[in-house]
Each structure stands twice: as C-alpha cells, then as structure tokens.
Design brief:
The protein has 17 helices and no strands. By secondary structure, it is mainly α. Helix 3 packs parallel to helix 10 and helix 11 packs across helix 13. The chain starts with 8 loop residues before the first helix and ends in an 11-residue tail after the last helix. The relative contact order is 0.14.
Length: 448
C-alpha cells in the first residue's frame, strides 16, 4: 500500500479493516475457550468459566507489555519503509523476532514459577484456583510462539500489510475452535484442553508469519544475519516500545486490581464480567484498529518528510473511528443478551454481563480520542508523553477508584463507573498534549 500519496480515507479503511478483523477473530477464538467450557463441562461450567476469566488480567499484563514493545518495531519499520531504507527494515524485522523469542522463553520460565501467587493476588476463590492455575501454566508455556506472532504481525503492519496476519489468524483460529471441542468433548478435558488448543493454534500462526518474513522474494526478506541482535536497531525499537509496553503493562495492572474487586463479588459476577469482556472488546478492536492505522500512516509519512499529510491522517482516523465504532456498539447492544447467552444461558449472568456492556461502551468516545492521539504521537517517535499521560489518567484513576469509591459502595456498578471517568480525564490530557507539542509543526526527536 502506498501510504505516501493519494487519498487517505479509503486507504485507512483498507488498512484498518483487516486489522480490526484480526483482533475480532482473535477475541472470538479466545472467547471460544470460555464458551466451550461454559457449554460442555456440565456442573463445572461456571467454575471453569470463572477460571479462564480469572486469567485474563494476568495474561493481559504479560502480553500487553510485549505488544507495547512491538509498537516500537511497528514505528521503526514504518519510518524505514517511508524512507526506503531496506537494510534498516530487515534489521528491525529480524531483531523484533529475536526479542519475541527470547522474551517468550523468559516469560514462560517466570510464569511457571509464579502462576499460583499471581492468581492468589487476584482473590481468586478457592474453588476456582486449581483450574485457573492449570490454564495459566499451560498458557505461559506457549509464550514464545504467542509473542512471535505479535511481533511478526507488528512488522507486517509497519510495511502496510494487515491482510497476511489476518490470514494467519484465520487459519490458526479455526484450528483452535476444533481443538477446543476435540479436547473437551472427545477427551473429557476442561480448562487444560482449551489452553493446549490455544498454544497449538498460536504456534501455527507464528510459524506462518515467520516463514513469510524470511521468504527470499518477500517484501522484507529477513536473512540469517538480520536475526543477530543489533545494538542500534534494538535501541530504536526500545526507545518507542518500552514506554508503550510499560504503559500497557500498568494498564493491565490496573485491570488486575479491577478484576480483583470483581472477584470479591462472587462467581456469578466473575463469569458475567468475563463473558461481557469477550464481547465488548469486539467493538474495541474496531476502535483500536484506527489508532494503529494512525501510527503506521504517520510513521511512513513522517519518514518521507510529509508532515502536513500526518495531520490529515489524524483527522481522518478520528472521523472514521467514530463512525465505525458507533455502528459496532449499536449492533452489539442490540444482540448483546443473545451473545451473552452463548457463554452461559443463566439469566443472572446475562443480566449482569449486559450491565457491564452499557457502562464500558459509555466510555468509548473518550477512548477513541485518546488512542488516536496517542497513535499519532507515536508515529512521530514520541512515545513517553502519551504513555505517561495514559498511565496517570487511565491506570492511576482506576486504581485510586477501587481503593476509595469501591470501598464505600462494594457493588458492580461502583466498579464499572471507573471506566468513563478515567477515559474522559485521559482524553482531555492528550488533547492538551498534542495542542502544546504540535509534532507536525515542531521538529520531533528523530527515531533514526
């Protein structure tokens, strides 16, 4: 895709839609874990659902840290592509794959040793803890291939290709669903079966993308020498990726604290919240796809020295994001109760889950603004400011909320009200930041 010339509106859509579809499919396939154990484990259904759901914040903490770091790869690749620097493009891709594999091995070892303490810190009920620990240990064992997929996908996004990661995920996701059903129904397994299925399917998608990046006649054509750690290239990636990764990790910590508060309200609320989360993120992936499009388009155009076009990218991304996120929210709310019923038909779970959808969606307008602005700034190589403001606005307020407001009113709505408040404050701070910094006018710090 030529991001440097021609109209932006259609190209942003062409880039964002496969990216959104990738996130949605990924979430649907992840939701299949909960749906399968909720439907086919008999009297253990609610406990198994709660066990899988209890792992969401912990898994999010680790995966988000590295997905944030992979944003450094995305920006450096995009800037190199905009400048036509093929050598830097290959080195960045190769070093990104190395970071993914080494980071995955490290997280696998740490995760195996800390699985139970992490779950205990989340106030996971005693009847849920053993199953939750089994799921988490298996998931951690698969971290090398899980991170490899995410870093490889970031490289593809940087060169403007969002279709190949979608194809890889579609193949592995379908496999995941069949393996879920096979392990649970045929072998009589529960959370261990769906965890094993998740790891196997991620390995398939990771190998698919890795092979594509290393293909000799491919767009990137990573060579063996590009897989050797290179100090300068790693610094470029980490200078953008580490602040973003820390931000996303702290974000996950805030969600862990929220999840801990949710867990204290009992198994029904845990199961309902888990099911609702797996539905609400369908709209979030649409929202977030335009933010990532903003980062890549700005990165390439900044690399080419076309900074006026960068401003047009931000405006178009915000407008398109608003339209399509709104449409997705309306559709999900219309079908929300039926979708929640797919996870568990219990009326109390469905009603509680739908309440979460209403609260969280009320905050999406603010989320759309701050994520697009943050993506815009990162495209220029400015990572620390949006990361810091997001940590303060989203994470800081949510953590403080749980330790103050929730303590005076220990109810589910009390927890959920933290979402619109924290996102509104963050949006205001980032709007002020971009108006003050004016990265398309003032020369930002170079990432090259």
């Amino acid at each position: 895709m030529n991001m440097l010339e021609g109209s932006l509106w259609d190209k942003i859509l062409i880039y964002a839609f496969p990216l959104a579809a990738t996130g949605i499919l990924q979430q649907l396939f992840n939701a299949a874990d909960i749906a399968v154990v909720g439907r086919f484990t008999g009297s253990m259904a609610s406990v198994c659902m709660a066990a899988v759901g209890a792992n969401t914040p912990i898994v999010g903490l680790i995966v988000n840290l590295f997905v944030g770091i992979s944003m450094g790869s995305n920006v450096v690749v995009a800037t190199a592509a905009g400048r036509g620097d093929e050598e830097l493009l290959r080195k960045t891709a190769g070093n990104s794959l190395v970071v993914a594999l080494l980071g995955g091995v490290l997280m696998a070892v740490i995760g195996e040793l800390t699985a139970v303490p992490l779950l205990q810190s989340q106030n996971v009920p005693a009847e849920v803890l053993p199953l939750a620990a089994v799921y988490l240990r298996i998931y951690f064992a698969g971290m090398p291939v899980i991170l490899l997929y995410n870093f490889a996908a970031a490289v593809y996004r940087g060169i403007g290709n969002t279709k190949t990661p979608l194809a890889a995920l579609t193949i592995s996701g379908i496999l995941n669903v069949f393996l879920n059903l096979f392990f649970v129904i045929v072998f009589g397994m529960n959370v261990d079966g769906v965890a094993i299925a998740t790891v196997i399917s991620n390995a398939v998608s990771a190998v698919f993308l890795f092979a594509g990046l290393c293909r000799k006649n491919g767009t990137v054509a990573v060579r063996m020498q590009d897989l050797r750690p290179d100090g300068r290239t790693l610094i470029r990636i980490m200078r953008i990726g580490i602040p973003t990764g820390i931000q996303m990790a702290v974000f996950a910590v805030a969600n862990m604290i929220i999840q801990s508060a949710i867990n204290s309200l009992g198994t029904i609320v845990m199961a309902a919240s888990s099911a609702a989360y797996n539905i609400e993120v369908l709209a979030y992936y649409i929202l977030n796809s335009f933010s990532q499009a903003c980062t890549t388009f700005v990165g390439q155009n900044n690399g080419a020295g076309n900074r006026r076009r960068c401003r047009r990218v931000l405006k178009d991304c915000i407008l398109e994001d608003f339209i399509f996120t709104l449409l997705s929210i309306v559709l999900i709310l219309l079908l929300g109760r039926q979708m929640l019923g797919l996870f568990n038909p219990d009326k109390e779970i469905v009603s509680t889950g739908y309440m979460r959808l209403l609260w969280v969606f009320s905050a999406f307008a603010f989320s759309m603004l701050y994520e697009n602005i943050a993506g815009y700034l990162r495209g220029f190589g400015i990572s620390l400011v949006p990361s810091l403001l997001t940590v303060i606005g989203v994470c800081g307020i949510r953590i403080a909320w749980i330790y103050t407001v929730f303590q005076t009113s220990r109810t589910f709505p009390s927890i959920l009200s933290a979402y619109p408040v924290s996102m509104a404050v963050t949006a205001i701070m980032l709007i002020i930041a971009v108006l003050v910094m004016k990265p398309s006018v003032k020369k930002p710090q170079t990432i090259m």
